[in-house]
Amino acid sequence: MAVPLCCNSQHKPASSCESQIMPSLCCWSMPTHSSLQRDNKLSDTYILSCATCTARSLLDANATVKPAASPPPAAQPQQQAYNPGYAISRPSFVCFGDSITEFGYNGPSGWVSLLSQYYSRKADVINRGMAGWNTRWAKQVLQASLQQLMPQQPSNGSSSSSTNSSSSGSELWSPGVQLLTIWFGANDAVSPTGKDGYLSVPVDEYKSNLANMVSTARDAGVPNILLITPPPVNETAWAKVQGRNVSDRSTSQVRKYVAAAKALATELKLPVLDIFALVSALPAEERAAWSDDGLHPSASGQAMVFRALREALDNWNAFAGIRQSSLPLHWPAYNQVDYQDPQKTFDELFEKGRVVPETSQ
């Protein structure tokens, strides 16, 4: 379903927007909106999707956006679906964050688990969430975490006697880490005078730490980086779970960190998934169901995060190269192997690194 686009340059929604609140869910930053497309096609311009419109599209399967009246299109010849082929390796997607990321592996319905299922046999989704962490600590370990996952190039003069390996094929398709999601802020934004005040990081330092991690990832060769904003807090629920009279976390405080993350995304021309705005725009009942403890996503919240992330990866031009539909299978499907001469299939694969059917080229 197409989602109405809104312009954030003046915090004024485009005419197609269904809400008059500040648009937010996503952006691919440019300084002005003069080239904003209004035909429901995402492009590398300053594009945002109104939180209300997006929440409706993600959560209501029956939601529709009525297009302008137009004559029925002429019949088009059916095009053959693109076949991305198969390859000798698969890329890695690294989800880097705090407990909201770590708990994304809690059972098959966690958002990281769902992302892994969606990219099954096309990408390895790796959870690098650390409960209780803030950006001050995270920036210390990102470089080492990425180095452990990037492909190691053979040293000069090395050789292999294996008949099932080819250095040329490896060089042609050694994707390494192709996506890094960075989702911190829930702990950075804790009250410095609360019980968990030692986790607090001033908002200016938080922004600087995020910039440091983005620089580290770019230096490591990660081509796709996605910032995710921390979610709002149900202060009453969080205080109750913690056995306290007053919550040491607040939505008003988190909002400052959300603004810092989005400002950095604009400065560095990075896409940002604004979970804060998505959750805030939900009806009260659905917003309450987003989290059982007031902070971490419930089962329905986990599904919501996954759907928002999937929509971004499937539709934003920033991620065109790693869309699920565009990535090759890791190793050929059973019906792509020449059963009469399987050696021929694998010799070609190890020589090229990736094989794409001629009909798709």
Mean pLDDT: 78
Helix count equals 12
Strand-residue proportion: 5-15%
Helix content: 25-40%
Helix-strand blueprint:
Blueprint lengths: L25 E2 L23 H9 L26 E2 L4 E6 L1 H4 L8 H8 L5 E6 L5 H13 L19 H6 L4 E7 L19 H17 L5 E4 L6 H8 L8 H18 L3 E2 L1 H6 L3 H6 L9 H17 L13 E2 L11 H11 L1 E2 L6
Parallel strand pairs: 2-8, 3-4, 3-5, 5-6, 6-7
Antiparallel strand pairs: 1-7, 2-9
Helix pairs in contact: 3-11, 4-6, 6-8
Please describe the structure with a list of short key phrases separated by commas or semicolons.
361 residues; alpha/beta; 12 helices; 9% strand; elongated; disordered N terminus
What does it look like?
By secondary structure, the chain is of the alpha/beta class. It has helices spanning 51-59, 99-102, 111-118, 135-147, 167-172, 203-219, 235-242, 251-268, 275-280, 284-289, 299-315, 342-352, and strands at residues 26-27, 86-87, 92-97, 124-129, 177-183, 225-228, 272-273, 329-330, 354-355. Helix 3 crosses helix 11 (299-315) and helix 6 (203-219) runs parallel beside helix 8. It is elongated, with a radius of gyration of 22 Å.
Quick structural overview:
With 361 residues, the chain is α/β, with parallel strands linked by helices.
